[in-house]
Design a protein that fits this description.
The chain is an alpha/beta fold. The protein has 8 helices and 10 strands.
């Protein structure tokens, strides 16, 4: 009979996530971790009052969890630009509207064990809204986003998250073909804006929900 080591893996990840939550709280973020995505979704939905406008950034995690549909069912107005056939000007306007909603939902490309939140954008709307605009920002991330330090976080973002995102959007970049980042200077490069949120910005409430499952890119 094959031995089952899952309990040890689960214990290790939960110990790690507990430490990251403490580090985030020391940086003035609200933070907690959950064993399952169902628990995290329940907590997130309880945080957001019904009939409140919610902006959603470019995030595979948020879509994987089906949060847009759940919020709309709850009665929230959800503003998001990942819609087929959205004209260029309307796309730009929608991205701006996301940033003035009362709540803003997104994930992170990487979170360090010390509590640094790292992201790389092509346009910059997601990272700017995380820093200033909405009164409340909620970041939800799986344990796969946890890294040791900032250097590893940037490396993870470029070599894992950005490569898959480039493929997802059909970017004309080397990584979208080879699956490897070469830190290109291609016109279609999507790694253009890097942010590291080291402490909670004074005028923005940021809550980080960590989950002991693999989520997003």
């Amino acid at each position: 009979m094959k031995p089952d080591y899952d309990d040890y893996k689960k214990w290790y990840r939960e110990s790690m996530l507990s430490d990251v939550v403490k580090a985030l709280k020391n940086r003035d973020f609200a933070a907690s971790f959950f064993t399952t995505t169902d628990e995290a979704k329940k907590a997130l939905l309880e945080m957001i009052p019904a009939n409140t406008a919610v902006g959603v950034g470019g995030s595979v995690t948020i879509r994987e969890l089906g949060l847009i549909q759940k919020l709309e069912k709850k009665g929230n107005t959800v503003i998001h630009h990942w819609k087929e056939g959205l004209a260029k000007q309307k796309n730009r306007e929608t991205r701006k509207e996301e940033g003035i909603a009362e709540y803003y939902l997104t994930s992170a490309n990487a979170i360090t064990k010390d509590g640094d939140i790292i992201n790389i954008d092509g346009i910059g709307n997601r990272v700017s809204h995380m820093i200033y605009g909405p009164n409340n920002v909620i970041i939800i991330a799986g344990y796969n986003k946890i890294v040791t330090d900032i250097d590893e976080g940037i490396l993870r973002t470029k070599e894992i998250a950005a490569v898959m995102n480039a493929k997802r959007v059909g970017a004309k970049t080397p990584c979208a073909t080879t699956g490897k980042c070469i830190d290109c200077d291609a016109p279609g490069r999507i790694c253009r804006v890097t942010t590291i949120i080291q402490y909670r910005p004074w005028q923005t409430n940021i809550t980080v929900l960590l989950v002991n499952e693999i989520l997003g890119f």
